[in-house]
Amino acid sequence: MPPSVKKIESSILSRPIGVFDSGLGGLTVFSEIEKALPGENLIYFGDTARVPYGAKSPKIVERYTMEIVNFLEACGVKMIVIACNTSTAIAYKKVKRHIKIPVIGVIEPACDIASRLSATRRIGVIGTKITVQSGAYPERLKAIDPKIKAFQKDCPLFVPLVEEGMTGGEIVNLVAEKYLGEFDDKGIDTLILGCTHYPLISGVISEVSGPGVTIINSAEQTACAVKDTLEKLGMLNRSKKDGKRRFYLTDASVNFIRIGEKFLRQKMKNIKVVKVWDILLQ
Ligand code: DGL
């Protein structure tokens, strides 16, 4: 292989992976990718000016998603990870059609593992209003195994609680009891956390659900899917050095940095604020 081709190839490998969410929930996916692929360069985009997505209309979520995807593409990423269930539910197919680089969403990896672990084939799914209304989870679970029965519940208060840093305590407990009570008579043995914010309160969710229910955190499975896909495509960065991290936010959110640093257990350097009007679709 001529040296110039080698150089181009290695520069493709060192291009960053772009991970995005409406706010800080996608950091649960970001942190699993960091653990699985420490040598990869990573960009995180948090749409902190427009969070939450979950109660907005599908049209607007699709638009926000495409704006972020265009922005990340312009940053030269080699792969896009939609670390947001709401965006995945609404716009995954459109994003896949729109760009040439590989795209990973969070719904397929979560459904794959849930279907492998559920013995009763009765699976609960919790998510934002739009994720639940989209029917993306039941559709995917049925496609894997028509015998699966999916029960859904939207949990709109969980995202603002997490964004406020309230990941435990009496209020979160009460809200969880109210929402998860929906599954009391459904006989589920598996519960998918269909929102990337929810792993931050998985302790409470797991306690309220009880020991008979396996909690599925899609972040870990998504990181596996990222690794497998890059490996298959020969696009893994096998560098022994820790990759670089860059964070883009649409609003300088003190909560994002405070909670993000606590969760990632590291200082968040390289944070830049991107003006929403600079990424608007024409
Ligand atoms: N973390 C997101 C998800 O996985 C979105 C939450 C929101 O913005 O409402 O759905």
Features:
282 residues, alpha/beta, Rossmann fold, 6-stranded parallel sheet, 4-stranded parallel sheet, binds D-glutamic acid
What do you see in this structure?
- This protein is α/β, with parallel strands linked by helices and 282 residues long.
- The chain folds into two domains: 161 residues, Rossmann fold, CATH 3.40.50; 112 residues, Rossmann fold (3-Layer(aba) Sandwich).
- Helices cover 47% and strands 16% of the residues.
- Strand 3, helix 4 and strand 4 form a beta-alpha-beta unit.
- Helix 9 packs across helix 10.
- The mean pLDDT is 94.
- The strands form two sheets. It has a six-stranded parallel β-sheet with strand order 4-3-1-2-9-10, with helices on both faces. It has a four-stranded parallel β-sheet with strand order 6-5-7-8, sandwiched between helices.
- The longest helix is centred in the N-terminal third of the chain and has 17 residues.
- The structure holds D-glutamic acid.
- The site of D-glutamic acid (DGL) has 17 residues, from helix 4.
